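Appendix B, example 12.
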Amino acid sequence: MLSLIVIIVLSYIIGSIPTSLWVGRVYKKIDLREHGSGNLGATNTFRILGWKAGAVVSLIDFIKGFTAAFYLSQLGYLVGDIPVILSGWETDVFVRIVAGMFAVVGHMYPFLAGFKGGKGALTACGMLYGIEPISISLALVVFLIILFSTRYVSLASMISTLSYPLFLLILRYIIGVSYVDGSLIVITSVIAAGIVIKHHGNIKRLMEGTESRIQSFAPSKGRINEEKAT
């Protein structure tokens, strides 16, 4: 049981790495919390710093979730004290989910950035690739289709996030893929709901027609200069 606590703590710490904050300071010597939406995530990085910085942030945020779910989750088996959580649930899958989930929580509420972070979609994506790659690959296709058809990153994130547990249900109960564990469906549905709730501001702006679209992949130099001037 002690190792499960260690896994949770380490996963949260890795998730708490404020990638976009550090990249903003290195790349443009700015604090992203003071620009654009103020959100410490890949979307705001793309808008303010451009595609290169956005790609770096996206990759690292993805790796945070993958590392927690695929690697840190295995620490307990090195010492052999991971308990059986619930009868009928695969312990290995459950521990992977818990590790990845706390990486997502760390990304959303990073202690290294005053507990104000991103919205967790990419870190959750990395987590899910470390658990079950087929459904998350399909969800990624959904993300790209929505992104390039609407230019709304937030909308693409929410729809693809909600599509993931639906793909799991299809794999398990329609196609009959046995390794899709019940715990994965239940907990990822909760995570998906949490990520959508975290997007409440984006949902309001989408309904009002004021949500920002990705117009180009170049840094928003004019926006940074304008914000500094004000």
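Residues 2-214 form one domain. Confidence is low (pLDDT under 50) at residues 84-88, 225-230.
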